[in-house]
TrEMBL record:
This is HTH araC/xylS-type domain-containing protein. Keywords: DNA-binding, Transcription, Transcription regulation. It comes from the Bacteria. GO terms for molecular function: DNA-binding transcription factor activity; sequence-specific DNA binding. Residues 230-328 form the HTH araC/xylS-type domain. It holds the Pfam family HTH_18. PANTHER family: ARAC-FAMILY TRANSCRIPTIONAL REGULATOR, HTH-TYPE TRANSCRIPTIONAL REGULATOR EXSA.
């Protein structure tokens, strides 16, 4: 199986190396179990010149895009890693997407002839630009979601899974482990579960992705233009530890409950109540991370009277208990 890996300036450099290291480890695992190596790969930049990823360590591609297309053998898989930093300004994102225009017809042609396309984080923007994500939820780092919604309104985003396999398209969320998870999914799909397990043990990494929800704290979104919703957000955040009457909030803003909910959903993709719940869960996460307060007391600190109700909400939203969250993100240093 031949894989083409797209290289771009400001891509996630350690991710590129992680892909290659995991492919090498997989081939090693196959050879040690008396099988032939499965994967071959080429790195391709648009002009064939070295690229400088975010870590500043220059990578020399094997081919330019034009030279690669002229080869007798075409790849089975195109991997499209992140093409910009999730923390970039919107204008820079537009610039990055303009610079990758030459790739769009290549991946469209590859898809049309039945080839596999894999996007990692903002690599999904290329698939959307190519018109291939119209009915498919794209995965990406949560910091890139606002850019995606702005550039491709109406397209879907999946914020719950680390890897989504749609057949000829695989979409992978961002983050430091995304490239390894992507390769391990590829290994399990084409080389079998046994090889995937053996490779994951060789690399001392988890085969199955953890829940992504625990990483999405502190997301009080203000990247929208609805001033009334912003006022409502500030009020909810300021009084989140108190009992909030949403009817009174609507009256204060001179708007009906229905209109307030509609504008919240349009701007934030959630209702006012869901926003309050998110704020309270975020506050609980901060207290679990930074203090030794018992979880029972944290429930009341964030504004809940019913402990069992909040615990159910926390587990539903974060896909783990408060105690598990503290074990994963709490300080290991003892006070004093």
């Amino acid at each position: 199986m031949r894989i083409a890996i797209l290289l771009m300036d400001n891509c996630f450099g350690s991710g590129i190396h992680s892909i290659l290291d995991t492919l090498i480890a997989t081939n090693y695992t196959l050879v040690k179990s008396n099988h032939k190596p499965l994967f071959e790969w080429d790195t391709v930049s648009i002009d064939g010149n070295p690229i400088t990823p975010t870590n500043g360590l220059t990578i020399q591609p094997d081919y330019s895009l034009e030279n690669y297309q002229n080869l007798d053998t075409q790849p089975d898989v195109w991997i499209l890693p992140s093409v910009f930093q999730s923390l970039s300004a919107f204008e820079r994102v537009e610039g990055f997407l303009t610079s990758v225009e030459p790739v769009i017809p290549v991946i469209q042609k590859h898809y049309d002839r039945g080839g596999l396309l894999i996007s990692i984080c903002s690599g999904a923007f290329l698939l959307a630009k190519a018109g291939l994500m119209n009915n498919l939820p794209a995965l990406m780092h949560w910091k890139s979601e606002a850019f995606y919604r702005r550039l491709f309104p109406g397209l879907k985003i999946d914020t719950h899974n680390a890897v989504a396999d749609y057949g000829n398209i695989i979409s992978v969320i961002g983050g430091s482990m995304s490239c390894e998870l992507m390769v391990m999914h590829l290994v399990e799909r084409f080389a079998g579960h046994r090889t995937a397990v053996d490779t994951s043990k060789l690399l001392m990494m988890h085969l199955n992705a953890p829940s992504t929800k625990a990483f999405r704290t502190n997301v009080e979104t203000t990247d929208h233009a609805d001033e009334l919703v912003l006022r409502a957000q500030r009020h909810i955040e300021k009084h989140s530890h108190e009992e909030i009457n949403f009817n009174s909030l609507s009256n204060m803003l001179n708007i009906s409950d229905r209109q307030l909910t509609r504008r919240f959903v349009k701007s934030l993709q959630c209702s006012p109540l869901q926003y309050l719940q998110t704020i309270r869960i975020n506050r609980a996460c901060n207290l679990l991370e930074l203090t030794q307060l018992p979880s029972t007391k944290i429930v009341y600190e964030v504004g809940y009277k019913d402990e069992s109700s909040f615990r159910r909400l926390f587990k539903k939203q974060m896909e783990m208990t408060m105690e598990s969250y503290r074990q994963q993100f709490g300080s290991r240093m003892q006070p004093g």
